[in-house]
Amino acid sequence: MTRTVAGPRAGRARLFVLLGPAFVAAIAYVDPGNVAANLTAGARFGYLLVWVLVAANAMAVLVQYLSAKLGVVTGRSLPEVLGERLPRPARLAYWVQAEIVAAATDLAEVIGGAIALHLLFGVPLVLGGIITGVVSLLVLAVQQRRGQRAFEGVVTAMLAVLTVGFCAGLFFSPPDPAAMLAGLVPRLAGADSVLLAASMLGATVMPHAIYLHSSLARDHLHAPSTSTPRILRATRIDVVLALVLAGSVNIAMLLLAAANLPGREGTDTIEGAHAAIAGTLGPVVGVLFAVGLLASGLASTSVGAYAGAEIMSGLLRVRVSLLARRVVTLLPAIVLLMTGISPTWLLVVSQVVLSFGIPFAMIPLVRLTRDRELLGEHRNALTTQVLAWVVAGVIVALNVTLLYLTFVG
Questions:
Q1: Residue 279: how many CA atoms within 13 Å on its side-chain side?
Q2: Which residues cross the membrane (predicted)?
Q3: Which spans in 122-147 are helix H?
Q4: Block means of pLDDT (10 residues each) for the chain, length 409 residues?
Q5: Residues 327, 308: contact at Cβ < 8 Å?
Q6: Which residues contact 55 (CB under 8 A, 6 or more apart)?
Q7: Residue 396 and residue 387: Cα distance in Å, rounded?
Q8: Structural contact between residues 199 and 42, judged by C-beta atoms closer than 8 angstroms
Q9: Sign of the CA dihedral running 267, 399, 206, 255
Q10: How far apart are CA 40 and CA 197, in angstroms?
Q11: Which of 36, 55, 32, 53 is closest to 44 using CA atoms?
Q12: What is the spatial distance between Cα 378 and Cα 54, in angstroms, rounded to a whole number?
C-alpha cells in the first residue's frame, strides 16, 4: 500500500525537480521593453492589439519548447550547434547580429530598472542605470557561486514579484469584457499600429531567450536515471506553465492601459503612464506597478547578460566571465541614458530591433530540430515542423511589412 502511494508521489517530485529553465527564459517575455510596448499599445489603441499578444505567446510556447528540446536531446545549446556547423566568416557575421540583439535587450532592461528607481525613489536615470547594473552583478554572482538552481530560484522569485506588481491594477479597474473579446479579432489600424505590433512581437518572442533556453535546459536537466521522453514531458509542462504566466502578465499590462489610459495626456512614456495609473487607481497601485517594473529590470538584465555570454561561448568558443561581460555591456545603456533621449522611445525601438533578430534565431532552430542525424527519434514531427515554419513566416512577413511602412509609408 505504501509503495503504490509513494511511487506516484516520488514521480511527481522528480517531475517538479525538472522544472525551472522555462521560468528563467520567461523573464525575457516580461522585461521593461514589454512594459513600454504594452502600455503604449493599450493607451493609443485600446484593446485593438490584444490578439497580437495572444498570438505571440502561442508562438513563444512552440519556439521555447523547440529550443529546450535541442538542449535536452543534444546536450548542446543552439549557439554551440551553430558554432560547430558554420564556417568561420559566417559564424563571425552571425555572432555580430546576435550581439546587436543582445545589446538591444540590455538597453531595454537597464533603462527599465533606471525608470523604476526614478519612480520609486527619485533616483536620476543615469545613477539608476548604474544601480541596476550593480544589482544584476550580484544576481549573476549567485549563479557563479551557488550554481544554476540557486540562480533559477532568485529569478523565479523576481518573476513572482513583477507578476503581482503588473497585475494588481486589474483588481481595482477590471477591463471591459466585450472590448477585450473584440480585441481578439486580428486587425490593425495603420502604420503606427504595425510598428507597435512588431515591437510587441519583438518583446514577446525574444531572440536571446531562444538562444538561452537551450543552454538552460542542457545545464539543468542532468538526470541520468530519467529517460529523455520523461525529461521532454517535463520540459513541455515547464514551458507551458512559464509562458502562460508571462503571457498573462503581458495581457494584463495592455488591459490595464486600455481601461485607464486612453485620452490621458503624457501616457506615451512609462513615467506618464505610471502617473496616470497612480492618479486613477491610487498611489498603492502606482507603487506596486513601479516595484514590478524594478523586479522586471533587475531580473531581465541578469538573464540577458547570461544569454549574451552563452551566445559568445557557443559561436566564438570564447568563455568570458559573466561578471566581466555585465560590466562591458552596461556601458552603452548608460551612455544612451546620458543623452537625454526619451527612455520609453528607446525601449520601443529596442523591441523593434529584437523583432528583426528573431528570424536569425528561429529559422536555424526550426531546421535543426527537424534534423534526423542531430535529434534522431526526437526530431520534429511533420505537424510541428509545419507549425514552426508558419510561425517563422509570420514573423518575417511582419518585419518586411514594418520596413515597407517605415521607409515607403
A1: 13
A2: 12-30, 45-66, 92-115, 121-142, 154-173, 193-212, 239-261, 281-308, 320-339, 345-366, 386-407
A3: 125-146
A4: 46 62 90 85 94 93 96 94 94 92 84 93 94 90 84 91 94 93 92 80 80 88 69 92 94 94 80 90 94 92 88 89 80 88 79 78 95 95 95 79 66
A5: no
A6: 186
A7: 14
A8: no
A9: positive
A10: 11
A11: 36
A12: 28
Those residues with Cβ within 8 angstroms of residue 179's Cβ, 6 or more apart along the chain or in another chain? 46, 47, 258
Contact 311, 98 (CB under 8 A): yes
Q: Helix or strand or coil: residue 183?
A: coil
User: In 3D, which of 29, 106, 37, 20 has the Cα closest to residue 63?
Assistant: 29
3-state secondary structure of 173: coil
Nearest CA-CA partner of 326 in 352, 342, 302, 348: 302
235-238 LR contacts (CB < 8 Å, sep 24+): 235/18, 235/21, 235/22, 235/65, 235/68, 235/69, 235/72, 236/65, 237/15, 237/19, 238/18, 238/19, 238/20, 238/21, 238/22, 238/23, 238/68
Q: Is 20 helix (H, G, I), strand (E, B) or coil?
A: coil
